[in-house]
Amino acid sequence: MEAAAAKAPRQLPRARLAAAAPCPAVNGGCGVLVFFAALVAGAIVSACWMSASARLQVTPITPAATAIPTKARNAAKGPDPAPGPPRFAGVATSTNQTPHELLPPAPSPAGAAAPAPRECPAYFRWIHEDLRPWRDTGVTLDAVERARRYAPKFRITVVAGRLYVARYGRCFQTRDVFTQWGILQLLRRYPGRVPDLDLMFDCEDLPVVGAADQPPPLFRYCGSEATLDIPLPDWSFWGWPELNIKPWEALRREIEEGNAMASWTDRAPYAYWKGNPNVGAGRRFLLRCNASGERDWNARIYAQDWGKELRRGFRESDLSKQCTHRYKVYIEGRGWSVSEKYILACDSVALMVRPRFHDFFSRGLAPLRHYWPVRDRGAAMCRSIKFAVDWGNAHPDKAREIGRNASRFVREELAMGRVYDYMFHLLAEYARLLRYRPAVPPGAAEVTVESMARGRRGLERQFMMDTVVAADGGAVGEGPCRLPPPFSAQELEALRRERAEVVRQVEAWEDHSADTRRA
Ligand SMILES: *[C@@H]1O[C@H](CO)[C@@H](O)[C@H](O)[C@H]1NC(C)=O
Ligand SMILES: *[C@@H]1O[C@H](CO)[C@@H](O)[C@H](O)[C@H]1NC(C)=O
Q1: Total-model pTM
Q2: Which of 21, 69, 146, 411 pairs as cysteine with 474 (C-beta 3.0–4.6 A)?
Q3: Sheet strands (E) in 188-344
Q4: What does the record list as coiled-coil region(s) (predicted)?
Q5: Residues 161 and 210 placed together within one structural domain of the fold
Q6: Whose CA is nearest to atom 5 of ligand 1?
């Protein structure tokens, strides 16, 4: 069935789009028609791609599957009912008491037959693609060590469920700390299930591994079409203390609560962006789309004043209070941007400036289904934004649907439980490729919840406490979701072609509307 669905897209969208194309251009009426045609085509075309998510909707994800061990938190507070005391308060002072002992095991439903795990979101299929370069050769110790030529900042080794880290360099802020913390929580969430492994990790923004004869495997936060770096979830899922960005699960809920308070129609009918404009040429282009005296591109662009925000603890950058506009621009910085998930969570329409990089989940997003594609160059970017906003304001129901689909994606397919599942499957699949038995490398030290929490204060400590997973897994006996199969070559080709087609279609509407205006 999947194969059949995958073949369909080859002719369908073309035929439909072509059929819609000759309609006369009256007030953008053509664009609308074509849009619906594209939607229909998209629905059919993506049937295979979306089949996993469709199944997902049948079995809704329960909050219990997510990573915050509420039970553990409450229990660990012990007799003290006041909020605030850290869940592993004893850790820093007592070295013989492990968090394991502080956190009670979750009760397991006695005698309950384990249900078959549900299938993971469709974007998990990219795990197979990311590991494809090593599928036939496997990963040798030599290959792993050859990755040193790219100056990775640390090496992660898991042996018998314990985490060892060898440090080779420094990472910006606490990226490395919260990345390692995340892997540590994964080991606690699925105790005894993460196989032994050994990998090199770099915490710089840009992917660097070129397609060579024998590329070494290198993990980081993002990848691109042109490189072979393997993306793992970034540190911000466990929090970004320097910017006062809370761990994802908590922030996601806050944003969701905020969404319920501000309906789409009540939001400002413009495209909003706030961030650091000094990283990447695209962001400098974006500044020019700001409303000026002469021209209103429907964009409201704000440059973050880092000095001021730093002094004020980034209070004015509270992400849960940034869902005030109907449209939100996503634009990459130097590499991918962690802002993507916060923007998608908003219920606003994400106007996505054509990205060059992907993180682990963004390949699960489809144009006009989860976001509106925007051009990435010069004045065309401003025209794209203006067109998107005008279109959305004229078609509020369709626009809201795109916004809601994005926030549903984030809620269901990017809940913290799925993030852990992604890490689990990626690492397990990687471990299967290893052609040697991982051993603790020279210079590596064991990393534990205690060792990481030791001496940390303020938000760093707070975010760790907020995301620590009960040592028994805290996942109430639920294992990871089931990894969907690899794409066939045809499926992959169809998917790429279909998405490119939708983007080209949107660009054609823009050009058309610009032509009409000029005429
Ligand atoms: C964009 O325009 C608004 C309103 O005129 C202004 O407040 C804001 O500072 C401008 N943004 C930039 C980056 O100049
Ligand atoms: C939103 O998602 C639903 C369910 O996946 C889908 O049927 C619908 O076509 C999507 N809307 C758009 C605009 O793509």
Answers
A1: 0.78
A2: 69
A3: 197-201, 219-220, 223-224, 230-231, 268-275, 299-303, 325-330
A4: none
A5: yes
A6: 291
